[in-house]
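Protein modeling request. Please complete all fields; requests missing the sequence field cannot be processed.
Requester role: graduate student
Desired output: 3D structure, token encoding
Chains: 1
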Amino acid sequence: MTTNGQLLLGLGARAGVPEEELAAAIDAALRQAGREPAGIAGLATLDRRAAEAGVRAVARRHGWPVTGFPAAALAGVVVPHPSAAVAATAGTPSVAEAAALLAAGPGAVLVLPKRVFPRSTVAIARRVG
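Delivered output (129 residues):
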């Protein structure tokens, strides 16, 4: 059983995706990982997405703090599934996986590699130690 504080959710999304669409993607990803929202310590994303209404609302729904990282910081994270298309639009080859890993800290591991939905991507990382 995972306790609160060990898992971080990474979220990539197109601009303007509404709360309900993000919530559905996150719920589906959590089900795939066999995790509950209560086991997630926070939501991490690209800095320019962190201020968006849909992202803030879905995080507030679960009581998760939101952390936004600049594209340059995310680009420095080695991920298993980089995307040239994401790099072209976001300035980093990964948002969801990189944000989850960066937020979870040194030595973090993905417990759910990115899951791609129509306008968003979700990944989950676990803190180590």
